[in-house]
Design a protein that fits this description.
By secondary structure, this protein is α+β, with helices and mostly antiparallel strands. It contains two helices and seven strands; from the N terminus they run H-H-E-E-E-E-E-E-E. Strand 5 and strand 6 form a beta hairpin. The radius of gyration is 13 Å and the shape is globular. The two termini are about 20 Å apart.
């Protein structure tokens, strides 16, 4: 219940999660990462962590506190999404 309340508050705080268009950044068998406005949503339905490489972009920390910070290098960023988890950057 607390997780659903946190998601509801976050959606209320971020207008882009309610109305911006969706841009797919990564679509995998068990993982999906998309951008809505400034927010990036990363989902992993797999039973093991997923590593997803994205083009270079600025990502704040996970607003839900479930995913580690994105790792940056010269060519882009790598997200590690824990198993059966969703994160919002």
């Amino acid at each position: 219940w607390a997780h659903v309340q946190k998601l509801t508050r976050l959606r209320a705080q971020r207008a882009d999660l309610r109305g911006a268009s969706t841009e797919n950044l990564h679509v995998g068998e068990q993982s999906w990462v998309y951008r809505r406005g400034r927010s990036v949503v990363a989902l992993n339905n797999g039973t093991s962590p997923a590593e997803v490489r994205l083009p270079a972009m600025e990502l704040a920390g996970d607003a839900l506190g479930l995913c580690p910070a994105a790792r940056r290098d010269s060519g882009g960023v790598t997200l590690t999404i824990p198993a059966r988890t969703g994160c919002i950057f």
